[in-house]
Design brief:
This protein has 436 residues and is α/β, with parallel strands linked by helices. It has helices spanning 7-15, 51-54, 63-74, 87-99, 113-127, 146-151, 192-201, 229-240, 261-264, 309-324, 327-348, 377-389, 416-433; strands at 30-34, 37-40, 45-48, 106-110, 133-137, 169-172, 208-213, 243-247, 271-274, 285-289, 352-356, 362-366, 392-393, 395-397, 405-408. A 7-stranded mixed beta sheet has the order 4-10-9-8-7-5-6, sandwiched between helices. Strands 1-2-3-13 form a 4-stranded mixed beta sheet. A 4-stranded antiparallel beta sheet has the order 11-12-15-14, covered by helices on one side. Bound molecules: pyridoxal-5'-phosphate.
Length: 436
């Protein structure tokens, strides 16, 4: 590849990039991908445990996705105003309507997770017109538009002074059992974190439109809740007439081994946002709404490129692939395999404080000392760099402002051989960075 491109031209281009537009910490120029592997401009291959922001769930360059995209492009309709129907849109609506959890059968689309979440907030306000406040858990991540920054935990520097722009978000403690906000242990805690939501709502639920949350907190540190937590949250929202929004942008379409986290945790929200993996590598997000609730009024959530027909065609192909190739089974199988091996490593290494799943949503919390649980942040940053040297791209949870969680969230098609290589590299780096 490097023989076909003018590296000087690329270097010139790099000079013009606005700071902060990319992470910049990994100096890789990627040129191609296949399955779980990406290749850089020098021909070096990497197993991508980030699935490119957890989006290539079915793997890179799946022939059926490419075929679907090319067919739609050849039709000459890569873009279409939201006012019109297209064949991919109607096909996708049918497929999504059939698998949507519970009665979340009214669906809309957009191109970003942040915009999907803003849409969910609007729908909550449309359905509870006198309410203007929202609850959001600590360490929540909803996106980086102004409203979604406010819904996320406002850590600097990412949220800077933008967070107060929307002032109506009230924080509630999250179900972070490894570092319980109350210093308690599950199940003796009797889910005090959920009960705290009730305590908050007792003081003015009328003004609260909704609770917005990820069923499993991803960017905040890969924090799965205890099995019965979401059910209790659902009961509390019902009791106080507050809508429940699940952000399934990361968890939706199979990453936990079930199609939706709502199914895994047996809790159906009133509004669900989705995206990332559904597009098969093309941008597509959206909102699912309970079918007895009020939808948008005309033009209340409309965008120029919101109904991207190519992504809708690739999304149809993606849903077929997940089913035909039984990919959720591989998520469960490989997720269990990798997690069990990591748990064995945890016994051996001081650096590994906690290993969390389920499925291919794996987070490893690094600590300097297992007893004090002091976060090993520099080590986590170094971990990612050492991974790249060895041909594995690991993810790092930076959002919570701590950044000591290494993430393993590869495409669902990861093979046992690739998983073994990831584990071998993981152990080598853990050994290298462990306190001696
Ligand atoms: C759970 C969750 N919600 C929302 C978003 C925001 O999506 P986008 O970056 O497309 O705006 C993300 C992005 O990482 C996410 O992980």
């Amino acid at each position: 590849m490097s023989t076909q491109v003018d590296l000087k031209e690329l270097a010139e281009g790099r000079k013009y990039l606005l700071s902060g537009s990319v992470g910049g910490e990994l100096p890789l120029c990627l040129v191609s991908g296949k399955g779980s592997i990406v290749k850089d401009i020098n021909g070096k291959e990497y197993i991508d445990c980030t699935s490119q922001a957890w989006s290539y769930n079915i793997g890179f360059s799946h022939p059926k996705v490419i075929e679907a995209a090319i067919e739609q492009i050849k039709n000459g309709l890569t873009h279409c105003r939201t006012s019109f129907e297209t064949i991919p849109k109607l096909r996708l609506l049918k497929k999504l309507g059939e698998i949507a959890p519970g009665n979340l059968k009214k669906i809309s689309f957009c191109l970003h997770g942040s915009v999907a979440n803003e849409g969910a907030l609007k729908l909550a306000m449309i359905n509870k017109p006198d309410a203007f406040k929202f609850l959001a858990p600590y360490d929540n991540y909803s996106g980086r538009t102004l409203a979604t920054i406010a819904a996320s935990w406002p850590y600097r520097p990412i949220s800077r002074n933008f967070a107060p722009f929307m002032q109506n978000f009230i924080r509630v403690p999250n179900a972070y059992c490894y570092r319980c906000p109350f210093g308690l242990k599950y199940p003796d805690c009797n889910l005090l974190c959920a009960e705290f939501i009730k305590t908050t709502l007792e003081r003015g639920a009328e003004s609260v439109a909704a609770l917005i949350m990820e069923p499993l907190q991803a960017s905040g540190g890969m924090i799965p809740p205890p099995q019965d937590y979401l059910k209790r949250v659902r009961e509390i929202c019902n009791e106080y007439g507050v809508l429940l929004i699940f952000d399934e942008v990361q968890t939706g379409f199979g990453r936990l081994g079930e199609m939706f986290a709502s199914e895994l945790y047996d809790t159906i929200p009133d509004i669900l946002t989705f995206g990332k993996g559904i597009g098969g590598g093309f941008p597509l997000f959206g909102v699912m709404l309970r079918d007895d609730l009020k939808g948008y009024e005309p033009a209340t959530h409309s965008f120029t490129f919101a109904h991207f027909p190519v992504a809708m065609a690739t999304a149809c192909a993606t849903l077929d692939i997940i089913k035909e190739e039984n990919l959720l089974e591989n998520v469960r199988k490989m997720g269990k395999y990798i997690t069990e091996k990591l748990l064995q490593m945890k016994e051996k290494y001081e650096l590994i404080g906690d290993v969390r799943g389920p499925g291919l949503m794996i987070g490893i919390e690094l600590v300097k000392n297992k007893e004090t649980k002091e976060p090993a942040c520099e080590e986590a940053t170094q971990f990612i760099k050492e991974g790249v040297k060895r041909g594995v791209i690991f993810g790092q949870s930076k959002f919570r402002g701590v950044g000591n969680v290494v993430k393993i969230k590869p495409p669902f098609v990861i093979t046992k051989e690739e998983a073994d290589k990831v584990l071998e590299v993981f152990e080598e780096i853990t050994d290298l960075l462990s306190p001696k």
